[in-house]
Each structure stands twice: as C-alpha cells, then as structure tokens.
Design a protein that fits this description.
Layout lengths: L1 H13 L3 H16 L3 E8 L4 E8 L2 E2 L6 E3 L3 H9 L3 E3 L14 E2 L5 E9 L2 E10 L7 H23 L15 E2 L1 E4 L2 E8 L17 H26 L9 H11 L1 H12 L4 H17 L4 H4 L1 H16 L13 E5 L4 H6 L5 E6 L7 H9 L3 E3 L6 H4 L3 E5 L4 E4 L3 H22 L15 E6 L8 H4 L3 E5 L2 H5 L7 H14 L5 E4 L26 H6 L1 H14 L6 E5 L5 H22 L11 E6 L2 H4 L2 H4 L5 E4 L1 H9 L17 H17 L3 E3 L7 H10 L3 E4 L1 H12 L7 H9 L3 H14 L11
Parallel strand pairs: 11-12, 12-13, 13-14, 17-18, 17-24, 18-19, 19-20, 20-21, 21-22, 22-23
Antiparallel strand pairs: 1-2, 1-8, 2-4, 3-6, 5-7, 7-8, 9-16, 10-14, 11-15, 15-16
Helix pairs in contact: 1-2, 1-4, 5-6, 5-7, 5-10, 7-8, 8-10, 17-19, 19-20, 25-28, 27-28
Amino acid sequence: MLRVLQRIVEAVNQAPDFELALQTMVRQVKEALHTDSCTVYLADHEQHQFALAATDGLEIRSDKPIHVPFGEGVISLAASREEPLNIANASEHPAFLRLEHVVEDRYKAMLAAPVIHRRRVLGVLAVQQEQARAFTRDEEAFVVTLAAQLAVVIAHAEAKGLLRTAKQSPWLQTIKGLPAAPGVAIGEAFVVKPPARLSEVTPKRSDMPEHEIRAFRAAVARTRQELLTISDSMKGQVAEETLAIFDVYHAMMDSASLGKEVEQTINDGWRAQTALKLVVEQLVNQFENLDDEYIRERASDVRDLGNRILAHLQNREARKFNPPKQCILVADEVTATMLAELPQAEIIGMVSLRGSGNSHAAIMARSMGIPAVLGVDDIELNEVSGETLIVDGYNGDVFVNPPLQVENEYRQLADEELALRQKVMQARDLPAETTDGVRVQLNLNVGLNTERDWLNDLNVHGVGLYRTEIPFMMRERLPTEDEQEELYSAVLEQFRGAPVVMRTLDVGGDKPLPYLPMDEENPFLGWRGIRMTLDHPEIFLVQIRAMLRASVGRNNLRILLPMITSAEEVDEAVRMIHQAYHEVAEELQCSVDEQLFEPQIGVMIEVPALIYQLHCVADKVDFFSVGTNDLTQYMLAVDRNNSRVASLYDAFHPAVLHALKQIIERCDELNKPVSVCGELAGEPGGALLLLAMGYRNFSMNSYNIDRIRWIIRHIAAADLEQVLQRALAARSPQEVKQHVIMALENAGLGGFVRAGG
C-alpha cells in the first residue's frame, strides 16, 4: 500500500497543472482501493461552502459548479469534526445531503477524510462504494495519509491564487513570505538570475592539474576585482557598516580552506569547475545544517561567491542590466552582490524565494531602505517577470497584479512610510530617552569583520554582542592566537572608548566546526557553547588570551559566556579567564601607558535553568545579558528553524514575558546590570515591554537602532505599566501583540508595526 501511495503522490506532483493533478489523484485512488467513486471537495471559506473540484465516479448532470454549504452533509460533518468518517450506508446517515444535479443514489459506503494544512481545513477527500460496508482500517489509513499529502498540494495552489473564484476578494491573491525589511513598494517585477550556476556543472575529470589551478586562481583574482568594483560603487549609498558585507566575501576568498580545498580536489583529478562545485556545495551543506540563523544564512554568501568564481572560470562576459524604472528585484535567492550590481535608484523593493531576515541581502535592503520579503516559495519566476507587484515588508505579503483599489491604497501607505522614515532619521543625534526622562542605552549586535567606525553615525553606546564564530568556521583548522588577536584588535579599536562585549566561541553540537565533526541525536540540547569550550581548555584559553592581548591599552573589552546552565560552569570559566589574564600580563609586562586591564565578565541568560540560579553566579560575574532568541526556543521547546513548529516560536509568548520580568527583578535584587541582546529588543513592541519591565540596556542590529530610538523618545515609560500587566495576563502571543499594537497606535507610532504612518 505504501508503494501505491508513493506512486500516486509522485503522479500528482508531476502533473502540469492543479486541475489535472486533482483529476489524476481521484482516478488513481479509485483504482488503488477498487472503489466505485473518488471525489475531492475544496473549501471556499469566503463563500462558506465546499466546491466539487474533481471526481471519478459521480454522475454530474449540470455544467454549473457543484457546491456543498458549510454545515450541511457528510462532507461538512467530516470537516467540522476534523476527523475521517467511515459510514457503511451514507444515505441513511442523518447528515446525508442529496445534491442537486449529482447522481449518487447507488452508492452506500462512504469514507470522508478532511484535508487539513496547519490546522486549517482546505477540503475533503471522499471515496464511495455501491456495497454497504465499512471500509477497512488499512483503507481508512490510506485515505487519511493521502489527504495529508494532498493538503500541501492544495496549500501551494491556494498561495498561487489557483483556487480563486470570481466572487472572492482580490486580497486572497496574497503570496505569503517572511518580512525582511520594513516598508511598502509598488513596481514592475525584474527577475535576475545568477551569472552561472554550480548546480548545473557536470562533473568532469582532467589530467592537467597545473592548467586547471592557474585557471582557478585567475578566476578568483577577477572575482576579487569585481567585488571591489561593486563595493566601491555602493559607497555613499548605504551605511558604512553594511559595506562590511563585502569584507566577508573577501575573507572567504582569503580563507585557506576554500582555495586549498579546491586546488586539492583539482590535484585529485577533477576539472576546476567540478572541484569548485564539490567544495562549495560541501561548505554550503555545512552552513545550512546549523541552528544559528545568522551563521546559517552565510550559506547564501558561499553559494553566491562560488557562482561568481564559476562565471569567470567559464569566461562569461560581465552582465549589463537594464532594469525598468522603479522596479521590484525578484530572484530565486537575492544576494548582497546582486543588489549592489543594480542601480540603487531603480530598485524600490525586493522579493527572494529563499533566505531570511539574517541574510546579507536582507541586511543590505534594510540599510538601503528597500522593503523586502524573503522565503516566498509559492511563486514561479517566469510567471511574475514583468508583472506589477506590491511588496509589504511589514507583513511579508506580495501581491501580483493587484486590483486598482488595492494598488491605490498601498500607494498612499508608501507615501506615509516615506514621511515616517525621514522623520526617524532626524532623531539620530538625540539620546534614547522617554518623554518622562527614562534613559535607555542602545548597543549594536555585530557579526561581521570590519575596520569602519560606526559610532559617530549610529550614536550607540557600544557593542552589546560581538559574535566570534565566523573566523573559526571559515577555516580548515583553528585560528591561531595571533590571527584571533588581529581580528579582535580591529573591533576593539574601532569602538575605542566604548564597551565591546565579545561572546566566547559559541559552536559545537548544532554548529560543528568543519575540523571538529560531531554526531549527536539532538544537537540543539547537546555539546555546544561553554559546554564544548570547557571540554577543550586549549581552545578556550587561546581565545581568551587573544582577546586580552587585543585589549591592551584600550580597556573596553567585556567577555560574555554563552549557554551557561550551572554555577560550576561559571566557576571554571572564570578561573580560566583569570589564568589567561595573569599569563598575558606576565608575558607582555605592559607599561603604564599600555596597561592590561582585567575585563568585566558576563553570562548569557538563555537556558531557563539559569534563571533560578542567578544568585549562585552573581558574585562571580559583573553583568548579565539575556539572549531572547534561545531563551524563547528553550522555554517553548520549539526549534524555530523547523517549519512544522516554527509558528509556535514567539518571543511574545506570555510565559517568555514572565521569565523576562523575573530576570530583571532578580538582577535588580542582586544589584547586577542586565542587557537584552536578542531580537526582541529590536522589535517595536518588544522594546516597549522590556522598557516597562525595567530593562534599560538594549542591543540590536544596526538597522533597528534609529527606529527604536524614535519610539523610546515618543513614549512615556509610566504609561507602559498597564500595557505590561495586560500582556502578562494574556493567554496567547497574539493577544499580547494586540495590546502592544494598540499602545503603539495610541502613541501615534502605529507606522512601525504596519504599513503607513
């Protein structure tokens, strides 16, 4: 039966259009179960009825559509009960409904299974037989399993607008994605494809490795020059820190692992194009299997860089783009370099089939003020090219060829959005202080290597979180102490005079290093963060020594310990930090002018167990930092990267809010400063709730700094207490968000959570 099921699903997926797919399925199900009829009904929630979409067995005596009203018939009963109905003689069932123009009197047995996708009934799959009998358990399981498979097919068709009827609202043409950059844009879709694709390379061997290596090195050199040209063209158009994205590309080309691995693979007998394909795809797979969303999104950069090197290996001419005016950039995977290649004035919006808010394309879009929606998997590039699109970067909605009234409404919202953005920029040089005098320190979350100075432009207090993982993951070996010192020195120098919180190596388990492979059944709860580094003191001590050496004469280093679960872990980590400090002090014998200061030590609160042990570690550390991303994940037992349960991941969950309130209250009792470095601090509603709880130190990505500053400056902290109490009393994240949105609306700040000011 499983083989039959797989064959039917495969046939449905290969059908060229949706109607044929349904017709193929009902025919094959009828044959597989040896029944007399199989029918699919699709739910029309706008009209409150089920529409007969495909049948093999029912006699239809009308050219008009056949409908079953919600609440009537066995079909509606199966849908409302959300479980299969196995009826030996359906015509005698009290819910049986005789449909006009449908002949089914000869059928007795009926099995109706609801088609459900993400808790929403999309239709009903029904099989019927002339003989009065109950279907077997195997038959019932077969139909229920097939209905679950059919749910995905129908959901995709619905997202593409294939289920739309003439009476349905034009708003149902919305294609959903992930909001990646706020704002609204309306324009013609301009589809861009990569200059070359590694996925299309056919593996071939070569007996001339020297020739292939020369070709590879020449392609890398041309790629490097190309990236320099693109980066230079963006100067003055985007924020300085955004240009650091291109430093990552250069770092990847400088990385010994990439070039050495490709050349080694060439020496193993492969052509340069094949070797590049094998090495890049392996590296992409490593990144894509990581839990940390920021690090995982580097797979896009690796793939983009590989495709660019491939284009030069294939000696393809430089592309000349001719985008229409005021267009929407659409691609399978929009990359930062793709966005930078196009004239900025012509690109007003962005849609990417792949990616998330942590991709470099999303970061650049936010810096350029371009609304963006990513992760739109229910769209065909060839179908939208040249069509009119509306991009709603607040809700993650994309409209294709919208009706005039919808387009006019969004044009008005776009004008309001522009006015709001201009107002926000005017407050950049002002302090983050509420109308009743409550000061908040705004800090940066940093994950890129750059030598540019951000402080003067962004007016921030310092760096609240500096991730140190990338240099470790870009190599085929551990970086040396000197290599790490050079990197940390650059960061501490550019923020001289401001605190820089460096998180120690947060890899392992779900974020394995290429040269330290690990195999765990549940890596999310496994050997990661401080657990791994304490087991490898030679790695931990070298990193701490590098940080300390880099801090000589600067005195702005703060060290943050991730994934702490127990007081014993803090004791051991602090002991090793002190050991490293005395070693470095003795080795360097610093002068009075270049004194080595002992850094402050902090602990990340992201494992729920630590909330109840803060009193045990408070005397060992100088500060705490709340990582709301992982704290939410562990509090709710949800892997936020698993699409099946990602909807359950929500930092606005009342339980998470109660935990955050308990943390700030406990830290106040212990007289220990605490900051929030998770994404919640950069959310308008999240910032309000944290402010109401008593948090006064927020760290976030650079694109949120101006927005959060503006919100803080236009709200009174005293007015938020009632909002917080309502949020804590709420039963769901949705209810919390309603209270927060209402508070923002009442303060005239609704434009930060929806389109239009």
